[in-house]
Amino acid sequence: MPSRKRATRSAGLxxxxxxxxxxxxxxxxxxxxxxxxxxxxxxxxxxxxxIPKGEYGPAEDPAAAARREFEEEFGRPAPDxxxxxxxxxxxxxxxxxxxxxxxxxxxxxxxxxxxFTMEWPRGSGVLREFPEIDRFAWCTPQEAVERLVTGQxxxxxxxxxxxxxxxxxxxxxxx
Length: 175
Known about the structure:
The chain has helices spanning 62-74, 141-147, 153-165; strands spanning 9-17, 30-36, 49-50, 53-55, 84-90, 96-103, 115-119, 127-131, 133-139. It is built from 3 helices and 9 strands; from the N terminus they run E-E-E-E-H-E-E-E-E-E-H-H.
């Protein structure tokens, strides 16, 4: 009997803030996103950024995974605050991503990203270590749309609906 591949799931946390006391209109907030590390993304800006997120298994709570992955990728614990559920989206590769948002202000330069090891160059037998995220930045939603990988852009729209119109229901209590 052929084995069935387990569906891959990821969970993440998208921080947002109001710069300098701006109001929450379409240009009045910023989101914290990270540029993906490693050699595949090194020379790219457009569609090479991500919400801090990562995979989790069937026994792990998605919100707990989002908190763990934020800390792993940013290198600092997720801040305390109200979690806003932005729902799920299926990515083009088949992965389902679940994202929460939280209003918080962290220093992007204070990140100490986690790392991963891979053979590079391919076929060389040389293992090298790369940061999972090589830099973080606060971006307006318009900037983030250009920078984020295509499948994560839906979460910006959902966050915009929340901050402008209150259409997204907050999670009961952040994990």
